[in-house]
């Protein structure tokens, strides 16, 4: 039988007389989580006795939080999908997502998503969880995705992400030759008024910053390493199009499919601090076959057959 997610704490001398509600806030238990515990079958106990958040703590009190069971929504069906899991513990998963797979279901693609595969994986392994995807990728973007196995873990990682503690770096192929060896693109991004999908650079948009470094120059495109200082929807794709170098294959933002049939974008590196182990976590995923084949096919087509890096 699947186990509920639980957390254990011990009150210190400094917590003597403190209301449990205040203590749990310091332990980063959100108000939403406390409401969920109260109304949906969770339990808060001190020294084995159920209590309310108005309980006054004593030093060495043993506090246990039992969160309610997590149940996927009826519309989220588990599917048997092979997942490239690079790392897993009781709190998080890191998956290398292939291109052509949605992160979550959409109206156009209601099945076959990473979220569907995760639900199927949890069901098959008796894990009491629903999907909590911390770092999403577009359908045709490949690479590393960070997943929390519980809403509280998602809360902690989301907070870390907002403070800049979660880092991702990408590889991409951009049309044309970028002469700068490295640079920074600062341009605000907003939703395009006539589209629910497309974004654009606009003065009224949210601040967005992308750093890039040239890894190689080929006859018709530039191989880039990129890092995001912000995490706006389609940020790399919009910024590269904005400077006149849309990604290969990215027809939504002006790219062409002559060399590769999907946007040539891959999340190569992922870094975060584990919220429970207080440990630096670093993962890499090499280029997928389609992008690697583009490099190999075009390598000897440079001037003199030599790299121009």
Give descriptors for this structure.
309 residues; alpha+beta; ten-stranded mixed β-sheet; four-stranded antiparallel β-sheet; 16 strands; disordered C terminus
Description:
It is a single chain. This protein has 309 residues and is of the alpha+beta class. The chain has six helices and 16 strands. The protein has helices at residues 20-26, 31-39, 114-124, 151-162, 235-242, 289-299, and strands at 6-10, 43-46, 49-50, 62-66, 85-88, 92-97, 132-133, 142-148, 167-175, 182-186, 189-191, 199-201, 209-217, 221-228, 265-273, 280-284. The relative contact order is 0.12.
Distance between the termini: 56 Å
Low-confidence stretches: 303-309
Beta-strand content estimate = 25-35%
Q: Helical content, roughly? A: 10-25%
Rg, please?
A: 23 Å
By DSSP, the count of extended strands is 16
Largest sheet features: 10 strands, mixed
Mean pLDDT across the residues is 93
Describe the global form.
elongated
Number of helices: 6
Structural class based on helices, strands and sheet pairing: alpha+beta
Write the H/E string, N to C. Answer: EHHEEEEEHEEHEEEEEEHEEH
Architecture blueprint of SSEs:
Elements: E1 6-10, H1 20-26, H2 31-39, E2 43-46, E3 49-50, E4 62-66, E5 85-88, E6 92-97, H3 114-124, E7 132-133, E8 142-148, H4 151-162, E9 167-175, E10 182-186, E11 189-191, E12 199-201, E13 209-217, E14 221-228, H5 235-242, E15 265-273, E16 280-284, H6 289-299
Parallel strand pairs: 8-15
Antiparallel strand pairs: 1-4, 2-3, 2-4, 5-6, 6-8, 7-8, 9-14, 9-15, 10-13, 11-12, 13-14, 15-16
